[in-house]
Amino acid sequence: MIRGAACIALAALAAGCGGGGKDVEARLTVVVPDNNIREEGSECSGARPFRAIHRGTAFTIADGSGAVVAEGELPAGTAADADPSIDWESELIPTVCTFELELDLPDRGRYRLVLPEALPLEFERRLLGDEPLRLVLSG
Amino acid sequence: MTRRLRTGRRLLLPLTFLVLAGCGGDEEVAGGASDLPGPVPAHVRYAEPPSTSLPAPTFRGELLDGTPVEGRELWAERPHLVVFTASYCERCREIHRAAAEAADSFGGAAGLLGVVGEDDRSGAADYADELELGHPVALADERTWRNYAAREPGLVVLVAKDRVVRGWPRGANATELERALGLLIER
Fold this sequence. Notes:
The structure holds two protein chains of two kinds.
Chain A: H1 5-18, E1 23-39, E2 43-44, E3 58-63, E4 68-73, E5 77-81, E6 92-106, E7 110-114, E8 121-124, E9 133-136
Parallel strand pairs in A: 1-9
Antiparallel strand pairs in A: 1-6, 2-5, 3-4, 3-7, 5-6, 7-8
Chain B: H1 2-21, E1 45-46, E2 54-55, E3 60-63, E4 68-70, H2 71-77, E5 80-84, H3 90-104, E6 111-117, H4 121-131, E7 137-140, H5 142-147, E8 156-160, E9 163-168, H6 174-182, E10 185-186
Parallel strand pairs in B: 5-6, 6-7
Antiparallel strand pairs in B: 1-10, 2-9, 3-4, 3-7, 5-8, 8-9
Helix pairs in contact in B: 3-6
């Protein structure tokens, strides 16, 4: 959903000046494994200790050399079943909070998504495809 | 009703200041001291909280205009709904409005305190302006959030006479909150 102007501009700048060729469409799902009790599908933000992760939180994406190639803000999170193999038999269930990102990135081998108060999330170009790539945060 | 009163005050106050103080510049801050509740209405009687309810954790913070606030003083006077919220939380707006509707239905016999994180100060000012509920909003530190088991914005807690009577981790509608308050307030 996020295809922020700032993000596109920065990505385009990095790719355009570097002569790196076509952009890569990246669909990412940032997963906050907070196991908080919520209704599946409801709006969420990271529960403690992930309280810094919420709608409007700024993120950056750097390439393998450390150069920032994109930046933006998280959209609202959506609660997803923490363990779909279990029939919880309740509307309120253990959930994780997920944030969907859709970005154009300059073509690089490796990337690093950086969010506040969390370890960076590394991912590789070869893993990007039609399905969103799930990136699970740790504190 | 609160909103009408508040709007009226907003219209009257600037005029009053202009006449009496000559462009003095004092302004009401939404969620600040001017939104603290007035005296408890006469002839209101309160029931004791259930004996099984837990002691309310210490609550110290400051309102959005910098006024210090002590939770114990608020809920010693009247039962309070405490809404842990955040400027970035869309669904919290509905929860906060529902809590205000429930508290307002008791005509001053119940209170409402919104609570935001200390790092949400500027966003909270816009949030309070947007909601314009006519009730105070306090900034509280991380320890306070933890002590009230507020892992995520949207928690509503009913506190009376320094006891936590009940909590709704994902909020509740006005009817449910009014019913819970009604068990503590004899009208």
